Amino acid sequence: MNRESFAAGERLVSPAYVRQGREARSSHEHLIRLLLEKGKCPEDGWDESTLELFLHELAIMDSNNFLGNCGVGEREGRVASALVARRHYRFIHGIGRSGDIAAVQPKAAGSSLLNKITNSLVLDVIKLAGVHTVANCFVVPVATGMSLTLCFLTLRHRRPKAKYIIWPRIDQKSCFKSMITAGFEPVVIENVLEGDELRTDLKAVEAKVQELGPDHILCIHSTTSCFAPRVPDRLEELAVICANYGIPHIVNNAYGVQSSKCMHLIQQGARVGRIDAFVQSLDKNFMVPVGGAIIAGFNDSFIQEISKMYPGRASASPSLDVLMTLLSLGSNGYKKLLKERKEMFAYLSSELKKLSEAYSERLLHTPHNPLSLAVTLKTLDEHRDKAVTQLGSMLFTRQVSGARVVPLGSVQTVSGYTFRGFMSHANNYPCAYLNAAAAIGMKMQDVDLFIKRLDKCLKIVRKEQNKESDVSRVDNYDKTEDVDIGELASKLDNVLFDTYQDASS
Known about the structure:
Elements: H1 3-9, H2 15-38, H3 48-59, H4 82-87, H5 109-129, E1 136-140, H6 144-158, E2 164-168, H7 173-181, E3 185-189, E4 192-194, E5 197-199, H8 202-212, E6 217-223, H9 235-245, E7 249-252, H10 260-272, E8 277-281, H11 282-286, E9 293-297, H12 300-309, H13 317-358, E10 372-376, H14 378-383, H15 385-397, E11 404-406, E12 411-414, E13 417-420, E14 433-437, H16 444-475, H17 485-504
Parallel strand pairs: 2-3, 2-6, 6-7, 7-8
Antiparallel strand pairs: 1-9, 4-5, 8-9, 10-14, 11-14, 12-13
Helix pairs in contact: 2-3, 3-5, 5-13, 6-7, 8-9, 9-10, 13-16, 15-16, 16-17
């Protein structure tokens, strides 16, 4: 309602009451005006009524919501299901145009404004999280792997002779397939074991650069967030190598926004060397549905070049989801989540350490990994290979999601490349282990329930191992030897008694 509408309302209802209502609406509009003027995440989160008012005001700026609109084109924002229209707040046109995902659509001013505001808020949050000198970013409606592919395809035009991408190994399929999909040959650099940690082999990286020649290398593709015992790559040193040899540097920062350590590495890498773009997931960092990512960088023109590489228009859903989330949380709410995540990481580490020691295992020492932890499974692996994978199955059937059990000697072929010791980021890691991560949104009750169920599963696996060990001792008896029958009977009695005691307990 505008001023004239309120004035007309005063002829029907007491002017004092109407003025009060007008002032209440003005408080909502004030928040919206500040957002549009500053383009930054509000300190305090909005209530739902303000958020819905804002989204409604934007939606009615799109032509498909015009009263009396007459559309005669092939794409006029028509939706058959009213439920689908409500699900998308009637933003039907998507974002971008055929030549640029960041371009403004003439018949969708509201959706275009939504896209611009979302990118501005996300840029503000990336700075808040630790990368203070980031120049530009945009939300892309594909997940991390395809976003990396988009970066590589953009670099192809700048480096026509390039054939290879140097990639310090991380056993995760999407980032590997992103290079294959873009048409390049990954050059896998094996990690080096330092204590329990798997770290970047800088000498091997530089040797490979010299061997292949800088002009034939598209970029170095590094990683921050990862599963322990692998730790974030040595980004500063890699950035210096890239700067010295004139090679682009793309960073897979999948779930690193929630980690001040990962963000600091990116900031420092850009300060001392070269980082062209870093890519992060929306769902892992902002707790929204899967389907979007953020491509960010320190050179505004290069990030714009990537956005123009995206073919056609795109879905507005990921942008809408993250916009609603950030406006609901506010910067204070997001900072609170980051603080709680750090606390949960320390708590998870403490609880896993106590539990592992109770079973003669240990928490691997991986101080350079701020997100993921790993516990050895040596006592399980010593008895039989299946015990390790059995533990993973038991956790899954008991509704423990996200935990990864990594056995020794697993072999996996991905897009024609064979990896030995797959999932462990190395050909021959010394032991089997179990992973758990403290990600944004985790609560203390999640940790407590996980520890309780893990404890129960370990007890069951240990009991089964003891039973099999007892049966094995009987099966391995060599019948060709002369043995006193009474002695044998005594041994069998002892085995049966032990088994009974285990079942009773």
